[in-house]
Design goal:
Radius of gyration: 17 Å
Largest sheet: 5 strands, mixed
CATH architecture: 3-Layer(aba) Sandwich
CATH class: Alpha Beta
Number of domains: 1
Strand content: 15-25%
Strand order of the largest sheet: 5-4-3-6-7
Order of helices and strands: HEEHEHHEHEHEEH
Distance between the termini: 57 Å
Shape: globular
Structural class: alpha/beta
Number of helices: 7
Amino acid sequence: MKYYILGIVLFITTSVFSQENFKVGDNVPQFKLWLTNGERLTKNDILNKVVVFKFWFTSCLPCLVDIHLLNDLVDHYKNRNDVLFVAPALDRKDIIKEFHKNTLFKFKTAYSTMDVSEVFNPLQVYPSYFVVDKKGKFYYIDSGTKQSNFNKLKNALEEVLDKKDN
């Protein structure tokens, strides 16, 4: 019985820690997101753009804290057509639309994104942030800490936009 329990514990531990976690420099996986404005967004659509992803959901208090800062970031880069801000949310479309009636969030918002979130963020920690360079590679990853740092995200975005080969 002792070995049986040990085997189960090892199996669960191996399963949890063997989930794919991306590293800076890895290629972004294939994905398909449906945006609340009716558009579809895939990996091919983001090539040649720097993309900031924020994975979140509406009832996640830590996910809501930095929305005003993120809106300021969108405003700062509004004249650049090579920067895209996308917020894949776990919530259904109707919940997101209701949220947007009361809260200004300037990211393009995708809905019902659990399938994509599970690939990008296998540990399912929210919010999670990713900056992707113009070649479709992860440049910055903040996933798994629950203590996100807006300044690090902003600095990563500025760095990747300043890169000569990007």
